[in-house]
Amino acid sequence: MKLSVDLSSLHNAVQTMGAEQINFEVSNEVIPIEPIDKQLGEGLEVNFADIEFETGLASYKGRQVLLYIKDHSYNNKIYGVLKDGTQGNRFHIADCQKLDEMRRKGRFERYVVTNKLDGQFAVSGTDNTNNQLIEGETNLSVCQYCLESLNYEKFRAMPRGQQRRMFVTSFKLADFFDTYSSFFKFMPTGVANNSDAGYSKDWDSISRNVRELFNYGCQQCGLDLKNNKRLLHVHHINGVKSDNSTSNLTPLCADCHRKQPDHQHMFIKHEETKIINQLRNEQGLNVKENWQDVYKLADPGMHGVIDLLEKYNVSFPEVGEEIQNDKQEVVAELELAWPLKKVGVAVDKISAIAATSAGWKVYSMRHALGQFEQLASSLR
Length: 380
Ligand SMILES: [Zn+2]
Ligand SMILES: [Zn+2]
Ligand SMILES: [Zn+2]
Prior knowledge:
33% of the residues lie in helices and 16% in strands. By secondary structure, the chain is an alpha+beta fold. It folds into two domains: 1-30 and 288-380; 39-186, no CATH class. The chain has a four-stranded mixed β-sheet with strand order 10-11-12-13. It has a three-stranded antiparallel β-sheet with strand order 1-5-4. The chain starts with 6 loop residues before the first helix and ends with a helix. Residues 1-30 and 190-194 have low confidence and may be disordered. The site of one zinc ion (ZN) has 5 residues, from strand 8.
């Protein structure tokens, strides 16, 4: 899809919204790995003010990151933290209550931002008795306020105490980053390029044959991808990538594929889900009879919002709704939309701004979650 955007009216819209003017970049290009990606993989110390939370998720220079305070000098805490990471500083993944408190108190400490996903964190501390610098790696825990602010995996409904602590213990960063991969232009390095592992050498021709055999149709949602063959994957039903027997292979569109059990870390780009959603609309496959259908169709990053919508019992949203301007040009795509009310939730800022200028009331994920009452009441 080509986004045709009249930038002058956009900039006016931005000004009336009171937001700062930003430079847009609309592109499908694969971006080469830059030095920043390498630095983020290792952890990079930055000023808090340079970390962005536009969508609600933490990001640095367009990359999804987590952030934490490396220093554990206070009370010689470092020794205990190296033994047991759960005693250390929490790492943050979103704009949460705790970070907001810090911000209000004017405490802008140095944070380490990283997209290293193995759960091991470089920590340090100065021994108060001999001034020696102690360094090492430990297993820090995720901040519960962050999980709450995103309603990640329906966290808000989870009882406090034991159950939440267990969730924190089993929290996997790679799953988390994968859930929100389409919110970011850049994929974390080291994870995104490992997808070839385990495939046999003749995989390309096997994959082509299977897709041809099934006439380029997704076997889950029924989408015809004859004209978009690269969006049709071939899935190993039993999970063994070297087992290429016919009965083990089935073609799935990229969106159905990423939603298979144990299929994290596929990092499907939002551009791709967008195209799939449009094609589903064109082919009459975008049928929503219950909330489960909405979950299935929508981007996994929106599940936290959908959970609240379902509890509030509002009408089903359209998923992947294209917004046109008065010249009938598509100017934006809203992940969730209620066309009769002209209310929607957008993944990316450019869509949010373009739809706003076309007369819609648009929420980012962050605002939908943070001001849910307001969103819900506008849908009544
Ligand atoms: Zn937090
Ligand atoms: Zn599908
Ligand atoms: Zn698969």
